[in-house]
Design brief:
With 160 residues, this protein is an alpha+beta fold. It has helices spanning 14-21, 24-27, 33-41, 105-120, 135-143, and strands at residues 4-8, 50-57, 60-69, 88-95, 125-128, 147-149, 154-158. The chain has one domain: Aminopeptidase. A 7-stranded mixed beta sheet has the order 1-2-3-4-5-7-6, covered by helices on one side.
C-alpha cells in the first residue's frame, strides 16, 4: 500500500464526488448525496467550518473525507451535544474507488484524518457514529484505537 495524502477539495472534484456518492455501496451509508454535495458546494460560505478533502494515492483520487468541530454542528446533529468549541470533533470518510476497498486504505484514511486533527486543532476528542451495521467502518475505527461507548452510542478517541 502506497502512502496516501489529503488534499483540499476543489470544484473539479465535484463530478467525481457525485459519482462516488451515488454508488450503491456508498448510498447504503451516505443516504442523501444531494445534502453532502450542498455542504461541499457551500464550503466557502454556509459550511466553511467543515474541512473537506479528497484522499489521494499518488495521483489517483481514491476517496473523500472531512472533519469538523462538533460545536459548529450542534444544531444539525441529534446524536451528541457539545458545550465548548475546539473540544470535540467528528469525521466522515469513504472510499469511492472500488479498487481500493478491502486493502487497508480505510484504516489509513482514519489514521491520517485523526492525525490531521491532532496536529491542526486543539481537540480533546473525536467522536464518530457510523451505522451499527457498517462493520467495515466500525472495525476501521476500532483498529485506530477508537472505543465504542455503549451508553452514548458512538465511538470516541481521546487526543493527548
Amino acid at each position: 500500500m502506497k502512502e496516501i495524502i489529503l488534499r483540499k477539495i476543489n470544484n473539479e472534484d465535484i463530478m467525481l464526488l457525485t459519482t462516488w456518492l451515488n454508488k450503491e455501496y456508498i448510498l447504503k451509508w451516505y443516504h442523501e448525496p444531494d445534502e453532502w454535495l450542498t455542504e461541499i458546494n457551500e464550503r466557502h460560505s454556509t459550511y466553511s467550518w467543515i474541512h473537506h478533502f479528497i484522499v489521494m494515492n499518488e495521483n489517483i483520487p481514491i476517496g473523500f473525507c472531512q472533519y469538523y468541530d462538533c460545536f459548529d454542528a450542534n444544531d444539525l446533529e441529534d446524536w451528541y451535544s457539545v458545550a465548548r468549541k475546539n473540544d470535540t470533533f467528528s469525521i466522515d470518510y469513504l472510499i469511492g474507488n472500488e479498487a481500493y476497498l478491502g486493502k487497508g486504505y480505510g484504516k489509513a484514511i482514519v489514521r491520517l484524518l485523526t492525525n490531521t486533527i491532532k496536529e491542526k486543532e486543539q481537540a480533546k476528542q473525536i467522536i464518530v457514529q457510523p451505522d451499527k451495521e457498517n462493520l467495515p467502518s466500525n472495525n476501521v475505527l476500532l483498529s485506530n484505537g477508537y472505543i465504542f461507548d455503549k451508553q452514548k452510542d458512538y465511538f470516541y478517541k481521546l487526543l493527548d
